[in-house]
Amino acid sequence: MAALAHVVVIGGGATGAGVAHDLALRGLRVTLLERGELTSGTTGRHHGLLHSGGRYAVGDREAGIECIRENQILRRIAPGSFEENGGLFVALTDEDMDHLNPFLDACEACGIPATVHKAETARQLEPGLNPEVKVAVEVPDATVDPMRLVLRFFATARRNGADLRTFTEVTGLACTARTVSGVLARDLVTERDYEIAADLVVNAAGPWSGQIGQMAGVTVPMQLSPGVLLAVRGRFCARVLNRLHSSADGDIIVPQRGLSVVGTTSWVVDEPDVPPVPAGHVARMYAEGSKLVPAIAAAERRAAWSAVRPLVGGGAASTGRELSRTFQCFDHKQTEGVEGLVTIVGGKATTLRAMAETAADVVCAKLGIDAACQTAQTVLAPHGAYYTERGERYDHD
Amino acid sequence: MTTTEQAPGQTRRIRISRRRPGAGRARVDEFDVAAGPDTTLLDALREIRSHQDRSLTLRYSCCHASCGTCGMRANGREVLACVTPLASLGSGPIAVEPLANARVEHDLVVDMRDLYESLEPTGRPLIRQDEELGGQEEPGPTFARYEDCLECGLCVSACPIAGSDSAYLGPAALAAAWRSVQEPRGADPSDVLAWVDDEQGCWRCHASFECTEVCPSGVDPAGAVMALRRELTRRKIDQITRRGRQRR
User: Fold this and answer.
1) In angstroms, how far apart are the furthest CA atoms of chain A?
2) pTM for the full model?
3) Which DSSP category does B122 fall into?
């Protein structure tokens, strides 16, 4: 019976959350495995920016269109989860001004609402802004709490029957005759190894997707591109501030709670665990961030960390900035003749719902299930429900 | 570790309280990690988990004191591991334990259910009005912004009353309750006030201010408790005065 099809989702980040929620809503049986706490990989460490799409509008139109569409959907399905602050793209130099018209044209082409503010208005709106500001374009960016938004997807998925297993590491895939038929898992708490049979496995492991693919002998064309972020104490702007130029280092400041988060850098690494935080990158965040908001220069460092973007694409990327921020779903039957395994990779936290819809469409088509996506119309449970509705897992006494 | 460009630092010994279901008391495991000047406790624990013992369990997410998941005790003090440099924890071995006044699930992971359940009756504000930025001559539009409370549980762990009496509402819930009263946004705060006006509510606090000391986000739960008491007292006096006037 198709309605009882069992899908195992690997990875408890934004991608896995979206996929588990979407498949559970379509009536499938879902088990999700995460080797740590939920959102302990790239998801929790992102900038906290709900993209309007403005950042990608000029150079990566597909990602720009995805962002504005999902931005509007997320505000509907996760009310109360965003600082409704908006964002400014700020021109500071003549060179920045050359980007103004292409930027406005690209926003229009992507459907991103954009309002131009003269320098004087921009300084009134954001008194902390560099007084050299020449013009600022307002777009519907917002601040988002990366963990709490994603917990809402998990809480809702569980209400719809999904089994979420944290601290459970995937040690292998059960493969016979080029077909993946299940997952070998280790409960890190009880140190028990077991196998879970699956009608289909979804690889949503973010920067670890390549390692999961290798377990089935398939290659996931992706690059691991870390970025360093700096949080300083103090809220130096009300809106998200972006530099109006081609994407570069340290050109976004996101206010979040009592902090301002400056990011980011971009380079390419081979290994996703514990990405480094080079001291020079932190200095660059201070230098570039204080061009947008001079007070950043003297602000107290609260934390510096790095997050690994799992970007779609192969070849010899040098900084990662040349790769698209869009996402891709791979049916490994199509790519390398391996049945039973689908990988969804790339994208942004902002596009997590769309990524999940794409992956769930592929899953349902492969399993012969005729069920439409309902996630764009389904309001999510509050984030606290993730904790208050958890069942007992371990018996201590 | 945190930086690749720094001079090789010292080695620090970390003693971690480990607990497994069915194993009774916690045991202590020791690990040595290389530490630079900026290495945080969370960096060290992630390093242990990645390269020394994959079975070490802990919670973390944002790495910059915004999500509130990596609360624990280091040398007996409540901290968020992600913003606690090893260098701030003395020069000897560092004792790492889970938060107190919460049920330990395994190792450094505690059950957050009690905390979240205690926040529910407050309406658990997540979004609040932004304060106006300084230097602005004419006030601009007011935005919604996140509450400062990270729901991390450090205040509950540090609270001496919560340690001796689990019926006490506790500093996190009382701080959230005060936010609902302080900024009701059209709602009637009477229910929340009635809920905290109890011997296990805001009157139970002994004003040790441990909660405010350990709060990583400047929430000041002890100040919130005092504010709730003032508000309740004010309302009671108002009520008595009004009754007195009606009688006359």
Assistant:
1) 69
2) 0.95
3) G
How many CA atoms lie within 13 Å of A387's alpha carbon, on the beta-carbon side?
20
Q: In order of start, what are the domains of chain B with their CATH numbers?
A: 10-110 (3.10.20.30), 113-127+144-247 (1.10.1060.10)
CB distance from B39 to chain A under 8 Å? no
Read off the DSSP letter of residue A380.
P
Among positive and negative, which fits the CA dihedral A218, A222, A225, A231? negative
- Residue A378 region by backbone torsions, left for phi larger than 0, else alpha for psi between -120 and 50, else beta: beta
3-class DSSP string for B17-84: EECCCCCCCCEEEEEEEEECCCCEHHHHHHHHHHHCCCCCCCCCCCCCCCCCCCEEEECCEEEEHHHC
- The radius of gyration computed from the CA coordinates of chain A, to the nearest angstrom, equals 21
Which residues in chain A are closer than 8 Å to B130, comparing Cβ atoms? 83, 85, 238
Q: Which of A143, A145, A303 sits opposite B82 (nearest CB)?
A: A303
Joined together, the tokens standing for residue A327 give 């996402």
Positive or negative: CA dihedral A308, A313, A315, A321: negative
Query: B140–A124: do the CB atoms touch at under 8 Å?
Result: yes
Q: What is the DSSP string of A296-311?
A: GGGPPEEEEEEEEEEE
Q: In this complex, is the C-beta atom of A37 within 8 Å of any C-beta atom belonging to chain B? A: yes
Kindly report each contact of residues B199-205 with a partner whose C-beta sits within 8 Å and lies 24 or more positions away, as own/partner: B200/B165, B200/B167, B200/B168, B200/B169, B201/B169, B201/B174, B201/B228, B202/B169, B202/B174, B202/B177, B202/B228, B202/B229, B202/B232, B203/B229, B204/B161, B204/B165, B204/B168, B204/B169, B205/B161, B205/B171, B205/B174
The pLDDT tens digits along chain B (248 residues) read 444 444 557 999 999 999 998 888 899 999 999 999 999 999 999 999 999 999 999 999 999 999 999 999 999 999 999 999 999 999 999 999 999 999 999 999 999 999 999 999 988 778 887 765 444 455 555 678 899 999 999 999 999 999 899 899 999 999 999 999 998 888 899 999 999 999 999 999 999 999 999 999 999 999 999 999 999 999 999 999 988 887 76
Cβ–Cβ under 8 Å, residues A153 and A380: yes
The token pair that represents B178 in the structure block: 């005060």
* Cβ pair A147:B2 closer than 8 A: no
Give chain A's length.
Answer: 397
CA A2/CA B135 separation, integer angstroms: 63
Quote the tokens at residue A207: 């920067």
Residues 341-370 of A with CB under 8 A from B: none
Residues 6 or more apart in contact with residue A397 via CB below 8 angstroms: B22
Q: Which of B5, B55, B119 sits opposite A280 (nearest CB)?
A: B5
Domains and CATH numbers, chain A: 2-42+147-221+324-388 (3.50.50.60), 83-143+223-312 (3.30.9.10)
Residue A162 DSSP class: -
How many angstroms separate the Cα of B99 from the Cα of each of B41, B150, B153? 15, 15, 8
With beta carbons less than 8 A apart as the criterion, state whether A152 and A75 touch: no
CA distance B154 to B172: 9
Structure tokens at A122: 């921009």
SS3 B14: strand
Structure tokens that stand for A372 in this block: 């439409």
| ipTM for the predicted complex | 0.94
| Contact across the interface for A273 and B57, Cβ inside 8 Å | no
At residue A307, φ and ψ (nearest 5 deg) are -130, 145
